[in-house]
Amino acid sequence: MKSKASESSKSAAPSKEASSQSHALKAHNHHAGQAAQWCVRDVAYVHKSAALNEAARQMRELHVGSLVVVEENGKDRVVVGMLTDRDIVTAVVARDLNASTLRVEDVMSSDVACAREEDSVTDVLSSMKRRGVRRIPVTGSRGELVGLLAADDLLGRFSDELRTLVQAMASQPRMESHARP
After folding, report:
1. CA–CA separation, 54 vs 69, rounded Å?
2. Does some domain include residue 55?
């Protein structure tokens, strides 16, 4: 599934409480590292103190299956975890708990794998494989949220690159026949 946070965040109208506690981040493109070049910059995120039912509502409104969990540190939004729809199902729904009485920090995965802006895509893919995750937040030098690398987005980019390579290979005989009739 390709990330839809950028498309949906512009049209979603979250409740007052949700909009004050959870947002969509548009990060600045100020580094040229591979992770920084490949990541999606418009990331759906939520504060760790947000009500869990509001976070679930935000996922629904944005049509995403996960939110990056942050806490404010001065002007930075520092990554402290990930919240997935699966986390909500296994930790709350399957246990018949009331989501409106819980906070994001009660359910989130706090041992989150992050990539630094300068990390290579190869290193990020290795980390995804090792940790068994499909999405990795990209952080700046202070741990601040910069973007998100998702396996689906990478697959789309890789397939575009491969398609271009195949087209280049296919055009070679035609170009040669024109150059050397």
Report:
1. 13
2. yes
In a domain, 53, yes or no: yes
107 has a pLDDT exceeding 50: yes
Closest C-alpha to 46, from 120, 145, 161, 119: 145
Residue among 146, 144, 149, 142 nearest 124 (CA): 149
pLDDT in tens, 36-77: 888 899 999 999 999 999 999 999 999 999 999 999 989 999
Burial 112-139 (b: 16+ CB within 10 A, else e): bbbbbbebebeebbebbeeeebbbbbbb
Query: Would 161 be classed as within a structural domain?
Result: no
Token pair, residue 172, equals 């070679």
Question: Domain residues for 80?
Answer: 5-150
Q: Per the domain annotation, does 173 fall within a domain?
A: no
Helix (H) or strand (E) holding 101: none
Kindly state the percentage of the chain with pLDDT values over 90. 57
Radius of gyration of the chain from its Cα atoms, rounded to whole angstroms: 20
Number of domains observed in the structure of the chain: 1
Q: Is the separation of the CB atoms in 151 and 40 below 8 Å? A: no
Q: Which region among 43-57, 60-74, 117-131, 147-161 has the lowest average model confidence (pLDDT)? A: 147-161
We report the CATH number of the domain holding residue 83 as 3.10.580.10
Exposed / middle / buried, residue 78 (Cβ in 10 Å: 0-12, 13-18, 19+) = middle
